[in-house]
Please model this.
Amino acid sequence: MRVIRYLIALVVGLMPWLGFHGILDYVIKGGVDPSWEVWTVRVVGFVLAYSLWIFGTRNRLRERILR
Model:
């Protein structure tokens, strides 16, 4: 269960980068100058991934304390 949670957080965090500018774009164009919309989605994706990770950590700590 923990692995699935980490994978979801990783996918949510990386999706903005991979969705808007693929790896080939960086290789072919030598880097992309993303607009503010792209950076907004990247920040939101990172915050969501971090929130999922923190939420999972707190649940595990709560379970250990209650035992």
